[in-house]
Write a structure and sequence with these properties.
CATH topology of the largest domain: Beta-Lactamase
CATH architecture of the largest domain: 2-Layer Sandwich
Number of helices: 10
Distance between the termini: 21 Å
CATH class of the largest domain: Alpha Beta
Strand order of the largest sheet: 6-8-9-11-10
Largest sheet: 5 strands, mixed
Order of helices and strands: HEHEEEHHHHEHEEHEEHEEH
Length: 429
């Protein structure tokens, strides 16, 4: 989830909760105020009625109208002395409408000049109050919704502006590539944290580029420096082997030394190639037809391993398998996979090569499944442990595949080792 959406969702949820709490509190505050005003009206009306009854006792025999009903009832002296004024909600049956209507009622007591106590029950219809409360709820709900929408849109716009420098920095980071100079970053902002983050990113990018250049230079220099003494030693071993008077045992020792130096030279070249691939030094890419590379490499490789009498089966798809890769690296990738399948094949074994528009499968007979987790590691040797192998062929193949957005996997199927090269976009579907 994007930072903008995450922050916006949290703030919107908090705002909604705050508005809900505020709406409930506001509603009850308004209701309390309305009830208080109604009670004040009842008190004022009761004072008027009591004053009228004191001046004209005939009022005691009257009653109120429909919207405001009052009634006098004589009570004993004991009740009158301890009487407490009360307010309450009640209902009154309306004969014309044949239903009960809500009212706000008040009961109080007073004493006439002749010493008789009377209870006054006064009721006021609260239909208008209920209508007002309902209207208030609608207006409050509409106001709440409108305020929530406006605030949410405002928060989103503000957050979008606040996070714009961060998004610009992320887009800039996508432009950084190994082996290429760090592009300029034009990201002015008033936010100190984003400004510090941008400065740190530029500084880190420049240091990474400098370290990359130094590493690349070191690898090339080390390789060249190693190649020279290795070539000199091999030349001197050849001269020494041509000397007269060497015994058969000495010749065998020189032959072993020469073979060891050959593997060292091959290992040095392989490590240099692997480092260059992982450092992204092969930047030129093109559409490479894998079927054409197979057609070029297979005849020579089959001749080299002719002594194994391997039976080749070749299957092609309706469309060629084309990958986007450096052409030289593509040749090394396919060559390493073919050499591995021939070198580790048994005599009289099978080699199956199947291409489709999206995959390349190379299968060869074997005795037992291999460890798929360790197989592509550097210097890994299988159970056969053949000394002529450097243990870097499949590691180089995996690095080339990753650099070309390809997936290289291993499976054990029906007594055969299966190496499959698949385009990443097809694999993830």
């Amino acid at each position: 989830m994007k930072l903008l959406h995450y922050t916006y969702r949290k703030l919107s949820l908090l705002l909604f909760l705050l508005m809900a709490v505020w709406g409930v509190l506001f509603y009850y505050a308004i209701i309390d105020e309305v009830v208080d005003e109604t009670d004040d009206t009842l008190e004022n009306y009761a004072d008027i009625l009591i004053e009228s009854a004191l001046l004209d006792p005939s009022v005691l025999d009257t009653s109120g109208s429909l919207m405001s009903t009052y009634k006098f009832r004589p009570i004993s002296e004991e009740e009158g002395r301890d009487y407490s004024q009360v307010f309450y909600d009640s209902t009154v049956y309306i004969e014309l409408e044949d239903e009960d209507e809500p009212v706000r009622a008040m009961r109080t007591a007073f004493r006439m000049p002749d010493g008789q106590y009377y209870e006054l029950t006064l009721m006021i219809s609260i239909l208008e109050r209920d209508d007002m409360v309902e209207a208030m709820l609608w207006y409050l709900g509409a106001l709440f919704l409108l305020f929530l929408i406006c605030t949410s849109v405002g928060i989103r716009l503000v957050l979008k502006g606040v996070f714009r420098p961060l998004h610009k920095l992320l887009d800039w980071l996508q432009l950084i590539q190994p082996g290429k100079a760090v592009p300029a970053l034009n990201n002015p902002t008033k936010i100190n944290e984003f400004r510090q983050l941008s400065d740190a990113a530029v500084d880190m990018g420049n240091r990474s580029y400098k370290a990359y250049e130094e590493q690349k230079q070191f690898i090339e220099n080390a390789s060249h420096e190693l190649q020279t003494p290795l070539a000199i030693v091999r030349g001197k071993v050849e001269l020494l082997a041509e000397s007269e008077g060497l015994t058969e045992q000495q010749m065998e020792a020189l032959d072993e030394i020469y073979s060891t130096l050959g593997r060292a030279v091959k290992l040095n070249k392989s490590l240099l190639l692997l480092s260059r691939i992982e450092n992204g030094q092969y930047t030129e890419r093109e559409d490479v037809p894998v079927d054409e590379i197979l057609d070029e490499l297979l005849p020579d490789l089959m001749d080299i391993y002719e002594h194994k009498q391997v039976h080749l089966t070749r299957e092609r798809g309706e469309q060629p398998f084309v990958i986007r890769c450096n052409h030289s690296l593509a040749q090394i990738l396919i060559s390493n996979l073919l050499k591995n399948s021939l070198f580790h094949n048994r005599e009289g074994g099978e080699l199956q090569i199947i291409t489709t528009p999206d995959t390349l499968s190379i299968k060869n007979t074997g005795d037992a499944p291999l460890d798929g987790e360790k197989l592509f590691r550097r210097f890994y040797h299988g159970a056969d442990g053949k000394k002529d192998s450097t243990g870097l062929g499949l590691a180089i193949a995996r690095s080339i595949a990753l650099s070309a957005s390809l997936s290289l996997t291993y499976e054990w199927q029906d007594g055969m080792h299966c190496f499959r090269l698949v385009k990443e976009n097809k694999k993830n579907r």
